Each structure stands twice: as structure tokens, then as C-alpha cells.
Amino acid sequence: MDNQLIQERNRFLRQQNHHLWKFKSVIFDSQNPSGEKISASNTESKSFWQQNQALEAQIKVLRKLDKAFQNEEKAVQEEIRFLHEEIKALRHQKKAIKMELQALMKEGIALEMEEQALWKEEQALREENKALKEENNALQEEEKALWEEAKVLEDCNKILQRKISKHTCWENI
Fold first, then answer.
1. pTM above 0.85, yes or no
2. What DSSP character marks residue 92?
3. Who's near 16: CB < 8 A, 6+ residues apart?
4. Helix/strand/coil for 31
5. 27 touches 39 (CB < 8 A)
6. CA distances (Å), 16 to each of 19, 48, 97, 144, in order?
């Protein structure tokens, strides 16, 4: 918007300069002016010339301002382009982080399921261990009972052997 104002001001100053030059030529082209008129005309011409120089200086300043605004506009456009690129990169980064988070959540669920399976397996192993201990205790009890039965049978066998030996001794007599 500032650039447009400068351009409009520039056009206005050019038109004013053009009118001043026309006015100057009309004055000089008029019929033989008197000495006083020539002096006034010279003063006026000098004044117009100074105004023209001032206008040209203003035009020069306005052109420099216009160039500065154009450069600033280019810099702002470059900064906007850079910010758009940065926003695009941040969106990609956000998407990548979201995907990584989803993968970590899936991995967490899988690990939790694996942990539950291992816990169930541990429980099953504990139950099996308990059953094996009970079976071992039963076998020890059975072994103990068999040892006792063997001892009883051995005692019975000794008694029977003594009876047999006594009986054979009696028969031999």
C-alpha cells in the first residue's frame, strides 16, 4: 500500500513538473516582453527551475523509497516462504511423531499381552509344580508304606522261617 502511495505521488509530481515547463515556455514565447517583464520572467523561471530541481530531488528520494519498499517486500516474501517451509517441515515431523507414538502404543499392547501370557504360563507352571509336589508326597507316602510293608513282610518271613526251622527240627527228631 505504501508503494502505491509513492507511485501516485510520483505521478502527481511529474504532472506538476510538466505544467511548470509549459508555463515557462508560454512566458518565454510571448511577445517582446519588457525589461521588467523579462526580469520577473527570469526570476519566475529561476523559481520554476528550483522547484523543478526540488521536485526531481523528491522524485529521486521517492524512487529510492520505492526501491527500499520493493527490497523489503522481497525480504518479507522470502521470510514468508521460509516460514511456510518450516510449517511444512513441522507438520511432517508431527506426523512422524504421531506414527511413532502409535507404533509404541501397539508395541506396548503387544508387550502387555506377552506379559499376560507369561503370567498365565507361570501360573500353569506353579499349578503343575504344586501337582508334582503332591504327587511326590503321595509317592513318598506310598514308598514309606511299601517300606513298612516290606519290613512287616520281612518280619513275617523271619517268623515263618523260624517256625519252619523249628518244625523241621521237630521232624528231624
1. no
2. H
3. 55
4. coil
5. no
6. 5, 11, 64, 132
